[in-house]
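Reopening this one. Same input as before:
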Amino acid sequence: EQVDRLAALYAQHTYVEHPMSPLGDCPMRTREELRRHFAGMTGGNPALRGYHAADIVIHDTADPEVIIAEFAYQGEGDQGPFRVPCVFVLRVRDGEIVASRDYVDHLAIARITGRLDALIRPPTAA
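Same output, byte for byte:
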């Protein structure tokens, strides 16, 4: 399954953060946390079809463990085709991603998945 293949790219213990998340970041620290995150974004959301990374460009850095990946998430949503630009700064060790800072347009993803209202007006405490 795509979710498992994607999660397998990461080390068992990793550190993945979304510094531009509009509701604050909650870093993921394990492969299993990432697997659940990916499942929620891909197969778990009927508003996204054919969701994949496209136009991937990898930039090397002075640090041999660090790369910068530019790409776009694209696919088909309920409103039609979508494309969301992304930049990830990844640390790769022994063939596995051990850390990543993922810069994604979270508002675009919320709009595409029909969650923009929930993002703008988070639930209030009872």
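So the earlier flakiness isn't reproducible anymore. For the record, The chain has four helices and six strands.
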